[in-house]
Amino acid sequence: MPDERQIERAIARAFRPRRRLTRRAFLQQSGRGAVIAGSALSLPAILAACGIGPGDSPGASGASQAPLPSAPAGVLDFANWPAYIDIDEETGDYPTLAKFTDDTEIEVTYTEAINDNEEFFGTIQPDLAAGNPPGYDIIVMTDWMIEKMIRLGYLQELDHSRIPNFDANALELYKNPWYDPNNAHSIAWQSGITGIGYNPTLTGREITTFDDLLDPEFAGRVGMFSEMRDTMSLTLLSLGIEPADATVEQAAEARDKLLGPAQSGQFRNFYGNEYYDELANGNLALTIAWSGDVSQMKLYDNSDVEFVVPDTGGMLWIDNMAIPNGAAHPLDAHMMMDFWYDIENAVPLTEYVGYFSPVSGVTERVLEDAETAEAEGDTEWAEALRVISATANPSDEVLSQVHNYRRLTEEEESQWNDYFNEVVAG
Amino acid sequence: MPRRWRWLVPYLFLIPGGLWLLAFFVVPMLVMASVSLQEGSLGTGYSMTWNFGVYPEMLTQWATQFVRSLVYALIVTALTLAIGYPVAYTIAFRGGRYKNVLLLLVILPFFTAYIIRTLSWKLILADNGFALGTLKDVGILDDGFRLIATPIAVVSGLTYNFLPFMILPLYVALEKIDWRLVEAATDLYASRAQAFLRVTLPLSMPGVFAGSLLTFIPAIGDFINSEILGSRDTTMIGQVIQRLFLNNNAYPEAAALGFMLMAGIMVLIVMYSRAVGADQLTR
Fold first, then answer.
1. Rounded distance between C-alpha atoms, residue B36 and residue B254, angstroms
2. Taking the CA atoms of chain A, what radius of gyration do you get in angstroms?
3. Residue A194 in 3-state DSSP?
4. What 8-state DSSP symbol labels residue B62?
5. How does A323-360 read in b/e, with b if 16+ C-beta sit within 10 Å?
């Protein structure tokens, strides 16, 4: 969606001092200008000259990647999702990030620039395709997007000798994942589940299954996601189809299942991150939701809400830190990645965001902190920490209910997008 | 400058604006025209295939959203005119020494970002927010009543956001009118209504023309109001273009839609200026 935040960020970015072009990017750009200028100025020639290059043309991954510099640059641009890092509620500062700057003297520009995988990808894709610096050293993207960006050659390979904490402390679930063999290009930030969030006082009953979202009783009070993969995958699961193996025909079935309710006004709207406010303030009775959001909402915004993995299954997603091509400060980015796999830094992050942590031992440490808080008489915080520690790692039971996304080929993706567009735009 | 070079002066004056338009309007347009005719994918890159078929294809696929945007924009233009005319009239003829203060109030909303203003309507009109919530508590409204996620909210949001663009040109046109002409009309036994219809209104038509263009054109392509205040069933063409560009990376399709929107607007403007008289703009 044209996200308001995204637009404000775009404005902010336009006003930010312009980064120096690398020599290579400069030559590429001026080269393209020369092609246009030189093409005899006939209209068809001009039109034909502005083709868009293939994914892995300039400065792509692999052997051609430049080695890491020997010393950090002292600056880092980090793009992340809203409310996805520990924030000091009073000052608005990021305490753990500040600690990183104290430790390393690297100044971090942290922006909550990402609201939707596809939309963020859409804003940096032209730069990546043209070989221009995208303006970020670390981006946080969901597993299926990581897979797509690796395929297009948009991500730098990681130097694992620079991120020893990952190899030492990462949980098995996050090592060598399906979307990035051997974590060659990415390591997990946090993970969670796409399921259903609901407010029992508004639904009047327990919600257990995906089809509850389509129950006419809740017409106009149901939220859906504008992210095609989440919405389509949950729908496929409700049809008994494993999303990772779904065919284009089965995607059409999922569309058919959603189209009728969509046309009859069953869904209030299709949301990005802003579904959070709509559920918290009661405009939505039930909605597709991300697990950690609902834990946060329960603690801070609306104690009534509940999260449930639909009985037909939910989606497990893993958000990852990755370094896009053309990132100006790759060594600083490696140091930042390593930093979060130190348990001392992973614990405050988890205690704030409430998602699954990829770092081993976090659950126990959060529980210890709960006991400390209890002993100090802060029972409310102790209770909150207990809730978080219980959900800081998925239980085996939860893991048995969740599924992975499909690796969509470009052709399949455009088909699925067409189907989904019919559903979201009436 | 020697007299025989004088004829060059106007052209020299056109150079800065001309270069600006060339760099930031003509060139991007050519790039978009090119993109709209290409085929390909992110993985393989896009190349020129002169695929004109994308135009009819997109037009049929998104006809509903085109028509909806047109209807919304027409309603918004009519509403801003109906609301803006009395305001501009009052400021121009009855404003007295408060004229500047009143004008300042009209443009005051521009001191806040467009998005912030629209988002705040979402909060004000939330289903159980302080406007609707209060009315529901009192029992005036039904519990299920809502404004957000309806066409009413979208059209109201657009009207609110574009109202100053209607009031300001209307004010400029009305302010120029020599009040003695109206007095002359009444002296010649015209009623107040007749004087308005036969003197004031015709003389203010340049303002009406400029104001309705300034309102209609941004309104038809707007994607913010429907996104924030609307729902699936208020999807406007601007949102579709935005979604195709950013979410689906369907660059040719999005570029083709953008061109058709622009062409449609141009046709409508030509028709409108024929009907009202293009000289109204320059009078």
1. 7
2. 22
3. strand
4. T
5. bbbbbbbbbbbbbbbbbbbebebbbbbbbbbbbbbbbb
Find all residues with CB under 8 Å of B241, minimum gap 6, and list them.
B223, B254, B257, B258, B261
Query: Which residue stretches of A354-393 are H helix?
Result: 362-375, 379-391
Q: Report the distance separating Cα A340 and Cα A166, nearest Å.
A: 9
B65 by DSSP, 3-state: which? Answer: helix
What is the Cα–Cα distance from A380 to A399, expressed in whole angstroms?
A: 29
Residue of B nearest to A56 (CA): B43
pLDDT tens figures, B235-245: 999 999 999 99
Q: Which of A329, A309, A325 is nearest to A317 (CA)?
A: A309
| Residue with the two structure tokens 């009519």 | B78
Q: How many helices (H) and strands (E) does chain A have?
A: 18, 10
Residue in B73, B90, B70 with CA at minimum distance from that of residue B159: B73
The pLDDT of residue A420? 97
Residues of B in contact with A49 (CB under 8 A): 34
Compute how many other C-beta atoms are within 10 angstroms of the C-beta atom of residue B123. 13
List the structure tokens of A389. 């520690």
The residues, ordered by sequence, that sit 6+ positions from A34 with a Cβ below 8 Å of its Cβ are: none
Q: Indicate the range of A6-20, A192-206, A252-266, B147-161 predicted with least confidence.
A: A6-20
Which ipTM score applies to this complex? 0.86
B230 and A7 within 8 Å at the Cβ level: the answer is no
How far apart are alpha carbons A364 and A371 in whole angstroms? 11
pLDDT of residue B279: 60
The whole-angstrom separation of Cα A210 and Cα B116 is 34
Strands A267-271 and A286-290: unpaired
CA dist A241 and A112 (Å) reads 35
Longest Cα–Cα distance of chain B, Å, equals 81
**Degrees to nearest 5, angle at CA B79 with B73 and B82:** 145
Cα–Cα–Cα angle for B97, B100, B105, rounded to 5 degrees:
125
User: Taking the C-alpha atoms of A326, A327, A328 and A332 in order, what is their torsion angle to the nearest 10 degrees?
Assistant: -150
Indicate yes or no: CB of A129 within 8 angstroms of CB of B231. Answer: no
User: How big is the CA angle at A103 (ends A102 and A106), to the nearest 5 degrees?
Assistant: 70
Three-class SS of residue B201? helix
pLDDT band at B67 (very low <50, low <70, confident <90, very high): very high
Task: Give the pairing type, strands A402-403 and A107-111.
Answer: unpaired
Question: How far apart (Å, rounded) are the C-alpha atoms in residues B245 and A123?
Answer: 9
Residues of B in contact with A422 (CB under 8 A): none
Residue A120 CA: distances (Å) to CA of A85, A123, A137, B139? 18, 5, 14, 44
How many interchain CB pairs under 8 A, A with B? 131
DSSP-derived letter for residue A321 is E
| B244 CA: distance to closest CA in chain A (Å) | 9
Report the amino acid identity of residue A321: M
